[in-house]
Design goal:
It is a single chain. The chain is an alpha/beta fold. The protein is 50% helix and 14% strand. The chain has a 5-stranded parallel β-sheet, with helices on both faces. Strand 1, helix 3 and strand 2 form a beta-alpha-beta unit. Helix 1 packs across helix 6, helix 2 crosses helix 6 and helix 3 runs parallel beside helix 6.
Length: 192
């Protein structure tokens, strides 16, 4: 059994290594293209199932704070066809697909491609064998220091997307934030 302080250092170093490996593999042209698509899309659909759902939810939360028409596909009760039925050529989908690769997510991506939705896929570095034609693909190092993947690198990428969309689309981001604050100021938070 590993001492706790050693496990702590190993876990943090593992995440740092994953972030550094991911950063080295990113292409600036693809990043700029993805941000442009997120800004220009009529709707942004976000998909991630099982372990990737936390990443999808975080992305929807961050982007939803700075732009309108962000849709988290929750797939509760397998209702994802109804959640995606309005998607079309003016839309973009950010899809998270990590091992064990979800066949449902792959099927949603394939269906959205047929509807000419632009796909931005955030996935593992070893997913090259998955069909990625017509997509912008961001491979992330997710090697865990234990039994499960580490999502530190995809989280950094999500934070970058949110910062870049806000910087490039400042007026809309500011407007969405102001409207949100106006809504929340009506007594959303409890005074303590």
């Amino acid at each position: 059994r590993m001492p706790q302080d050693e496990l702590l250092r190993e876990s943090f170093q593992n995440d740092i290594t994953n972030i550094e490996e991911t950063l080295k593999s990113l292409d600036m042209a693809d990043l700029q293209d993805a941000v442009g698509r997120m800004i220009g899309a009529e709707h942004v659909y976000i998909i991630g199932l099982r372990g990737s759902f936390a990443l999808a939810h975080y992305t929807a939360s961050r982007l939803g704070q700075i732009r309108k028409n962000v849709r988290l596909v929750q797939s509760v009760g397998m209702l994802y066809p109804e959640e995606l039925i309005s998607a079309g050529p003016k839309d973009v989908c950010i899809a998270f697909l990590f091992p064990r690769y979800s066949k449902s997510t792959a099927n949603m991506i394939a269906w959205l491609k047929k509807r000419q939705v632009k796909i931005i896929r955030v996935t593992s570095q070893n997913s090259r064998n998955l069909d990625s034609a017509g997509e912008i693909v961001f491979p992330c190092s997710v090697r865990g220091s234990s039994f499960k993947n580490s999502y530190a690198a995809p989280l950094c990428l999500i934070n970058y997307f949110a910062a870049a969309v806000a910087a490039e689309n400042y007026e809309e981001a500011k407007g969405v934030l102001e409207e949100t604050e106006e809504f929340l100021s009506q007594g959303f938070y409890l005074e303590v």
